[in-house]
Design a protein that fits this description.
single chain; alpha/beta; Rossmann fold; two-stranded antiparallel ribbon; 31% helix; 16% strand
């Protein structure tokens, strides 16, 4: 008995084996067709505030101008943002959203220029502290308004060709002020969950199983979003490296599975 494939090749096999082979090919094609929404996330390149601790033992007058400055990249950061172009060009994105902060916009800007694409500013991607208790079922519900209560977002004229604002995203969020302590930590994380839920809702409302999107953000908030999507504290995982990429893929049952972390593939990338 012969089994003829779509590419024109013919396999000689017994009736039983041909059935099993055909079933295997069908399963493989079905699994491929069920590939779900892919969410890529890249943290900004290394900026001056990221290396401030490294320079604490040096007299401040001897610091390079970038040290401690959130709106200047370190020499290593400049290399990272250049390398990010090649890193991201391996993927096809249907949409890009970016935190409104200078360091995130300017991390992705070279890629946008190289690919002649635009990104949408999402104030919800702004940096914030998100603890691992974000996944706790006992986390209290935050009361009060957060979204759209902060400063107005302005896109510099020089960047207007590459970034757009949502009609409902022209202002930053504003977190309540909390003191240190366990109770305050819970309250702070509960407030952060409101913002992460908004990110998840927008993704669910605007994108489907055939889409691949890129989010450009920060360390703590990016790790918090990943915990939120996976319902996992991510114990044992290091922080997101500067210009590091993670990716999750939605499964047929709706849950997300971690496929890439800090640029390292964890599972077979479909």
């Amino acid at each position: 008995m012969q089994l003829r494939l779509e590419n024109g090749c013919t396999i000689h096999c017994s009736a039983g084996n041909c059935f099993l082979l055909a079933l295997g090919f069908w399963v493989a094609l079905t699994v491929e067709s069920l590939a779900g929404l892919k969410i890529y996330y890249i943290r900004h390149a290394e900026a001056g505030h990221n290396v401030k601790e490294e320079w604490e033992s040096v007299r401040k007058k001897d610091w390079p101008s970038f040290v401690g400055d959130q709106e200047k990249f370190t020499p290593r950061g400049e290399i990272q943002r250049t390398e990010a172009i090649r890193k991201l060009e391996r993927y096809d994105f249907d949409f890009i959203a970016v935190s409104p902060m200078w360091r995130t916009r300017h991390t992705i800007l070279p890629y946008l220029k190289a690919t002649k694409t635009k990104a949408e500013i999402w104030p919800e991607l702004h940096e914030m502290y998100v603890s691992s208790i974000i996944v706790s079922p006992d986390l209290p519900k935050h009361r009060g308004e957060i979204l759209g209560k902060g400063d107005r977002i302005e896109i510099p004229d020089a960047e207007a060709r590459y970034f757009t604002l949502r009609k409902d995203g022209t202002r930053e969020f504003e977190l309540p002020e909390f003191k240190n302590g366990h109770v305050e930590k819970e309250a702070e994380t509960a407030a952060a969950r409101v913002i992460l839920q908004r990110v998840a809702d927008m993704i669910g409302e605007r994108f489907g199983s055939d889409d691949s999107i890129l989010l450009v953000g920060h360390g703590s908030s990016g790790r918090g979003l990943l915990r939120f999507l996976l319902h996992d504290r991510l114990s044992g995982y290091p922080g997101i490296t500067n210009a590091g990429v993670w990716m999750v893929e939605q499964q047929p049952d709706g849950r997300f599975e971690l496929m890439i972390y800090n640029d390292v593939p964890l599972k077979r990338n479909k």
